[in-house]
Amino acid sequence: MRIIAGKMKGTSLFMTPNKNTRPLKDMVRESIFNLLTHSNKFLFQIEKSSILDLYAGTGSFGLECLSRNAGNVSFIEKDKMAIKILEENIEKLKVKKKINIYFIDVINFIKKNINNKYDLIFCDPPFKNEDIENLVKLIYTKKLLKKNGIIIIHRNKNVSDKFPNFFKVLEERCYGISRIIFGKILS
Predict the structure, then answer these.
(1) With 90 as the cut, is the pLDDT of residue 139 above it?
(2) What is the pLDDT of residues 147-183, one digit of tens each?
(3) What residue spans define the domains of the chain?
(4) How far apart are the first and last CA of the chain?
(5) pLDDT of 106 over the 70 cut
(6) Which of 53, 139, 141, 185 pairs as cysteine with 62 (C-beta 3.0–4.6 A)?
(7) How far is CA 171 from CA 16, 99, 117, 175, in A?
(8) Cα separation of 129 and 125, whole Å?
(9) Which of 187, 166, 169 minimizes the C-alpha distance to 179?
């Protein structure tokens, strides 16, 4: 696992030895950023953006955003081992000033959120999590996404998720067992 592009390109990341965390493969991360950068289906600038990395694990997605000049990243994770490795990765990359880490369950974090809004929300829940519709509804209810913001959801390609009618799927791609959904919330 490594940073793919940007100012920290090529830096390897620490990974957890347990199976509780499923890292986002380099190829999938690279494809996500290629779509964000080059697709005409949505206009998104990573530079100076505010990123919310839900179910962050060891932080590969959010750290990749920082390498590409994101303004700040908030990592949400409840696994102690993943948080420990995430902190080691942050220390290694020397990006502590642009980061907030929340050791809390994702749903509880969203419910407690007051005024924070994000340009991009990355959701990488465990594949066995079947409540994606309610997660998107909660993001909508708490107004976490800025106008023209993007939600990216990582799922198992064999799972059929239901989304609320205010969530518009802009792009969907499969890579191996992964399905990546790019969407926005309609106003």
Answers:
(1) yes
(2) 989 999 999 888 888 899 999 999 999 998 899 999 9
(3) 26-185
(4) 37
(5) yes
(6) 53
(7) 30, 28, 22, 13
(8) 6
(9) 169
Q: Which two tokens stand for residue 71?
A: 């303004």
Amino acid at 186: L
In this predicted model, what pLDDT tens digit does every residue of 67-88 receive, in sequence order? 999 999 999 999 999 999 999 9
Query: Tokens 């974090």 — which residue?
Result: 109
Above 90 in pLDDT, residue 125?
no
Q: Which amino acid is at 5?
A: A
Measured CA to CA, the distance from residue 37 to residue 27 in angstroms comes to 15
Look up tokens 């940007």; give the residue. 6
Token duo for residue 52 = 């919310």
How far apart are alpha carbons 187 and 182 in whole angstroms? Answer: 17
By the 10 Å C-beta count (0-12 exposed, 13-18 middle, 19+ buried), 78 is classed as middle
**Backbone dihedral region of 178: left (phi > 0), alpha (psi from -120 to 50 degrees) or beta?**
beta
Pick the CATH number of 26-185 from 3.40.50.150, 1.10.540.10, 3.30.450.40, 3.20.20.10: 3.40.50.150
